[in-house]
UniProtKB/TrEMBL annotation:
Family matches, as NCBIfam families: amorph_syn
This protein's name: Sesquiterpene cyclase
InterPro entries assigned: Amorph_synthase, Isoprenoid_synthase_dom_sf
SUPFAM superfamilies in the record: Terpenoid synthases
Gene3D superfamilies: Farnesyl Diphosphate Synthase
Signal peptide location: none
UniProt organism field: Streptomyces alanosinicus
Alphabetized Pfam families for the sequence: Terpene_syn_C_2
Highest taxon of source: Bacteria
Amino acid sequence: MSTTHEEVTLGVPGEKPVSNLRDLIDDNLHMPFPFQRNPHESEAAAGVDAWLSTWGLDREPGVTAMIRRTRPAELASCTSPTVDSGLLQIVARQIAYQFVFDDRAEDVGRLSPGRLLPMLCESVEILRDDRPPTTLLGTALADLHRQVRERCTPAQAERWAWKSREYVHGLLYEAVAQAQPFLLRTRDCTSIRSLTAGVEPFYPLCEAAQPHELSSAELHHPVVARLGRLSADAAVWIPDLFSAVKEQRAGELINLALAHQRQHRCSLQTAVLLAIQKINGTIEEFQRLYEEIKPELSPAGVGYVEGMIGWIRGCYHWSRTVPRYAEVALVPAMP
């Protein structure tokens, strides 16, 4: 029996020629949700620049160039195409903040996981205890927390803070895994990725976009909870496909495609196709469960789940064109 999984077909079932890895992803990924964009995107982009400047984050080394490559407002627009301009501003600023925070944590954690503790503990104390910030990143987070509490109900804001703390904890797990790569299994990689993705903190904002608050029974329904898990996984695994080239060259480990490559000792192209099989299965399960539960949901519940769909669809359309992942188009479709 083969252990490399190179028997996965690298041909593409379409008529157009496939020349690079991005085309291979496009032709094999199941994306049933049509592309949408928020009409307030340009306002959100200006708002991100102004917000980063207000808190001095744009003066940090490399931040301005990173923001140009990642386009936070574009990701916000693609994932949240129907929200009003005020909520889109919060989404875009949170995306920008998480990119800045994540890149800083990556740089610090690469030296030693222990060096991350002051940075992560400050974030947890701000989110859990309302502790006054002592750094530029902490000050920006405190302001973001304020904006969320002003826009959301107390219960929604608490869910946002709780999910944001999970994201912070995930960065420490990632640093430990990077420091001891020989211990990392594929399931450990996906568990850490579900935290470091930072997608679930946005779901309370999907709640806040609805005209009415969801009931506790609806919000915590087992099927709705499962939809949340499936959508968050799909939303982060899709960018993993497009970022695999960049992250492989940087020596990063927490990536679904790279985890398959390590496990099966195969080419990157085959690993990407194996990851796509998992993503397609996840999206198909999401579709099936949503069709089953949709008749039971209130209009607010439907809108909430549609917000989850926005993150699946938006992460795909953003990932395939964002400059941050442009290297994917330079790798041939065949090994």
